[in-house]
Amino acid sequence: MRSIYFVLCLCFLLPFTFAGRTGDVKKLFERYNKLFLEGVPSGKYHGTTSVLGQSCTMDITVESSTACDIVASGVVPVNCDQEAYSYANGVISLPNSSKSGDCVHTALTTAGASIVSVTYDAASDEITATFKYSFLKVPIVLKHVSAEFVPEITTTRKETEISLHELFDKYFVPFSLQDPAGTYKGTKSVLGETITGIIVVNSNDTFDFSMAGPIYLYCPGEAYSYANGVIVATNANTPGDCIYSALSSTGATLQSITYDTSSDSITVTVKYDFIVVPFTLQHTN
């Protein structure tokens, strides 16, 4: 098993004490909670992800309080205008997507895929659409873009592009056998506050874990284990451990660290009260 060395970018650490940071985190999540309860998706959202080495791009435009335009290219081509939707408590529902004859249903059935969920994070103004093929789940994070933004999406699959079925048969086994390796980097904006992270895989059974932003920690030499897509920080819930001490001082906890073999990315999820904030780190050269 390869091991993991976590280093999150510290280039813009906030110069305040743990006491001051705790207050800032509390205020941030109080604002997050208010926006979570009151915010709604609007305008255009655009995102790209990698599925077993192949690119998948998606664009969702909210056209009204009940209809949206969904366009996707790559392994799951979709082109559905005026698709009915409803929104409540962070969840976007597509009521007709399971009905025969519906545009989204037809597109996904043709690709052999299905929708797991579509969610909206009001604090970061992002939509996450998750599809499923067999037991492979493919999440796509779509960020809000300006009204003038025109994504370059081609919904017709090119002759040189491989279908999702062919892709799964050809590449899933070798991808699923890999462990996290190399460098992973990502950022997430939460109500104007930026969380930035870099993860670098090392050759021993410990990792250095750091966070920069409203929650700050730097914890070298943390023991970890990895199996079936889950990275476990062995002592993160033990009093006296660096991660435990740093997060508990702000009222936050580390909920999970997961690795997605199909996109070769790591997702770190932090929880404050009942609010869960995930951010994804993409593999970089």
Question: How would you characterize the overall build of this protein?
Answer:
The protein is α+β, with helices and mostly antiparallel strands and 285 residues long. Helix content is 18%, strand content 46%. It is built from 4 helices and 18 strands.
- Please state the CA-atom Rg, rounded to the nearest Å: 20 Å
First-to-last CA distance? 21 Å
Mean pLDDT: 77
Number of strands: 18
Overall geometry:
globular
Q: Report low-confidence residues grouped into runs of 5 or more.
A: 1-22
Number of helices: 4
Q: Give the biggest sheet.
A: 9 strands, antiparallel
Spatial sequence of strands, sheet with the most strands? 1-12-11-18-17-16-15-14-13
Structural class based on helices, strands and sheet pairing: alpha+beta
SSE order in H/E notation? Answer: EHEEEEEEHEEEHEEEEEHEEE
Helix percentage range = 10-25%
- In terms of DSSP E residues, the strand content is over 45%
